[in-house]
UniProtKB/TrEMBL annotation:
Pfam families: Ala_racemase_N. It comes from the Bacteria. One of its GO terms (molecular function) is alanine racemase activity. The keyword Isomerase applies. This is Alanine racemase. PANTHER family: ALANINE RACEMASE, LYSINE RACEMASE. Residues 9-224 form the Alanine racemase N-terminal domain. Its cofactor is pyridoxal 5'-phosphate. It is an enzyme of class 5 (isomerase). Keywords: Isomerase, Pyridoxal phosphate. Its EC number is 5.1.1.1. The keyword Ligase does not apply.
Length: 357
């Protein structure tokens, strides 16, 4: 059976790298755990590292965090639907918000539950996902800063999440200026400028991060060690915290081209025939994992001596050429993973999740 392995030691080293980097700049940060899809064992690994703040986009995942350690500060990181507000207030200490009506509902629910709920107001800075437009921000704040049981602890933004707009010093300086304007106008302190995500880390490493930015929300760089500007692993970090192992369930030498009339496969793809391959054969391996679990485009072939030919719902097919490593049925193939590949596998109940030292 295919399984996903988390390397505990490599995760710890990535965590310590980030922790020391943020501490040196007096920056607060939390870990985004949505990649784990609520896996209790993996969540406990995070908490055992000493993580004191966990962010997630699923309320049920935050509930599991509170079950493991009620002292961890939990942060809900997408706009909450009206029907989910009661459970969000129950399990999230903080939420990211950009809708006036929603914040009023959160205030009402917080009063009912007798809780103080913290809010980071999200500001639009160009990527056109969630966020209040900058020229509306002061009026927006004016309508919510005295709502009962609501504490506004920051202004935040998301970049590179929808349209690929990258963070820049100019955009982040603007967010810091909004904070200063609001603090002066309302005589109210806003502790955080939460403009940092994994994609912003290269600005910090290259000393280009504006001083006003003092809070990060980090997922991808923790788990994959990646510099998202240059798409490469940051020196001193690990890109292989996660690895996928899939078992060969069939190994046959077969023609390199199919025979018969061709139509679209179940994914709507029609094979383009390379006539130079007629009469040639190669060894093909079928793996015990498929599209239900992961899109093959997010798999990184560690071996380098095979190619992924395609996939169906439950199987991935490899071309091993002459099979120089003499793979056999029952052997396992190891893959590295991109973020979306790991996310798909974590969301699949058909792939085991394991931990190694």
């Amino acid at each position: 059976m295919a399984f996903l392995n988390l390397h505990r030691g490599k995760l710890k080293e990535n965590f310590e790298y980030l922790k020391s980097t943020f501490t040196a700049e007096d920056i607060s940060w939390g870990v985004v755990s949505k990649l784990f899809c609520g896996n209790r064992t993996y969540l406990k690994e995070l908490i055992d590292l000493g993580v004191k703040e966990i962010h997630d986009s699923r309320i049920s995942n935050l509930a599991k965090v509170k079950e493991i350690d009620e002292n961890v500060q939990t942060v809900y990181i997408k706009p909450v639907s009206k029907r989910n507000i009661p459970s969000m207030v129950k399990y999230a200490d903080v939420s990211l918000n950009s809708e006036l009506t929603t914040i009023q509902w959160i205030s009402d629910e917080s009063v009912k539950q007798g809780k103080k709920h913290k809010i980071i107001i999200m500001v639009e800075t160009g990527d056109l996902r969630e966020g209040v437009m900058g020229d509306h921000l002061v009026d927006f704040y004016a309508q919510i800063f005295e709502l009962p049981n609501i504490e506004i602890i920051g202004l935040g933004t998301n970049l590179n999440c929808l349209n690929g707009v990258m963070p820049s010093a100019d955009k982040l300086i603007q967010l810091s200026l909004y904070k200063q304007i609001i603090e002066l106008k309302f005589n109210k302190k806003i502790p955080w400028v939460s403009a940092g995500t994994s994609v912003t880390i290269p600005l910090l490493l290259h000393k280009q991060l504006p001083k006003g930015v003092n809070h990060f929300r980090v997922g991808e760089t923790l788990y994959f060690g990646v510099d998202l500007f240059e798409e490469k692993v940051i020196p001193g970090m690990h890109g292989d915290v996660f690895e996928l192992y899939a078992e060969i369930i069939e190994m046959q030498e077969k023609p390199m081209l199919p025979t018969g009339s061709l139509a679209a496969n179940p994914q709507g793809e029609v094979l383009s025939i390379d006539e130079s391959l007629y009469g040639k054969s190669s060894f093909r391996a079928i793996l015990d994992i498929g599209l239900l679990d992961v899109d093959p485009k997010y798999l990184l072939a560690e071996d380098g001596e095979f190619e992924i030919l395609g996939a169906s719902s439950d199987m991935i097919i490899l071309n091993l050429g002459l099979n120089p490593k003499d793979y056999k049925v029952g052997d396992t193939i190891k893959f590295g993973l991109k973020y979306m590949g790991a996310l798909g596998i974590m969301n699949s109940s058909y792939v085991d999740k394991k931990i190694s030292g």
